[in-house]
Design brief:
Blueprint (H helix, E strand, L loop, with lengths): L3 H16 L21 E3 L3 H26 L7 H21 L5 E9 L7 E9 L1 H22 L3 H22 L4 H23 L1 H6 L4 H30 L5 H27 L9 H4 L15
Parallel strand pairs: 1-3
Antiparallel strand pairs: 2-3
Helix pairs in contact: 2-3, 2-9, 3-4, 3-9, 4-5, 5-6, 6-8, 8-9
């Protein structure tokens, strides 16, 4: 008698080779080139940059106190340069305090595209920290610096107005360029800002020198020296911008250090130089500056005493 289990086992042995798929060699698919998405790059301030901001804040604050102290030591008729210079470092102190405490900044989004022959194009997203508080500072302090030079030279109102407007255009376009998303935007704003700076240079060199020629020899020499000093420093600002925010060849910390050196030279050093050098030749300004509005409400600036 045949055991049924033996039949099932025999049948299973004969058919297993037919039911179970056998391994066959087939060519493996070739690996397709893949593109790994780039991780966003953040370029921001480090420990060195933060310490630099604090140091400059302290220097600006101490200079501000010194300028106000010097202002109260002279009659109100001779405080014009003292007040303007003190306001310059006051705004700079506020700006550097904001930047040192982590305020007054934002990230500019920069997109860098790279084309490849055999793989898809890659896109790199870079976020660079831009301290917009610095541009607010410049928009307030650089017109005051120009007023110092303009009043020293005795420039007329028309030339002063053109100089200040060109300065504001220069600073605002620098801010727009810092946040430009494309190279066309960035360098386009930068170029127009440089043209505005050339207008400032022309106003100080040509009408400024013409106006100061009517003053004393010592005042003319002071204007030539301190004006030339200012123009040299101001020429370095767009150079730093082009290397830093523009081409991104410098880190944010290196950019902060470069601007810090220029700001200290252009503001406190400029202010002390101007006040001490011009102290002996400072002329009194009467009228509205010293006495305000008269009873009739008319504005009298520099009227001759009768």
């Amino acid at each position: 008698m045949i055991d049924p289990t033996q039949v099932i086992e025999a049948f299973g042995k004969k058919t297993s080779s037919l039911l179970v798929p056998t391994h066959t060699h087939s060519p493996s698919p070739t690996a397709l080139p893949t593109v790994i998405p780039n991780v966003p790059i953040y370029e921001k301030v480090g420990e060195t940059g933060t310490k630099t901001l604090w140091v400059v804040f302290v220097l600006m604050f101490i200079s501000t106190l010194a300028f106000y102290y010097l202002a109260f030591r002279v009659p109100v008729q001779k405080r014009l340069f003292h007040v303007i210079t003190a306001l310059i470092t006051t705004f700079a102190s506020i700006s550097y305090f904001a930047m040192a405490t982590g305020d007054g900044n934002s990230f500019a989004h920069i997109v860098v595209k790279e084309a490849h022959k055999h793989t898809p194009d890659t896109v790199e997203h870079i976020f660079r920290q831009v301290f917009w508080a610095r541009y607010v500072d410049w928009a307030l302090t650089t017109p005051l610096l120009l007023l110092d030079l303009a009043f020293l030279a005795g420039m007329n109102g028309a030339n002063i107005t053109v100089t200040i407007v060109a300065d504001l255009i220069m600073v605002l376009l620098g801010l727009f360029a810092a946040f430009g998303r494309t190279d066309g935007q960035k360098w386009g704003y930068y170029t127009i800002a440089c043209i505005a700076y050339l207008v400032i240079v022309y106003q100080l060199v040509v009408p400024g020198r013409r106006a100061v020629a009517a003053k004393s020899n010592s005042t003319a020499k002071l204007f030539a020296s301190i004006g030339g000093f200012t123009l040299i420093l101001w020429t370095l600002y767009p150079v730093v911008w082009g290397i830093g925010d523009g081409a991104r060849k410098w880190s944010v910390d290196a950019e902060i250090i470069a601007y810090a050196v220029l700001d200290v030279l252009a503001k406190p050093v400029f202010g002390f130089w101007l006040l001490f050098a011009h102290a002996k030749n400072a002329s009194a300004i009467d009228g509205f500056w010293a006495h305000g509005l008269n009873n009739e409400g008319s504005l009298r600036v520099g009227d001759d005493d009768e």
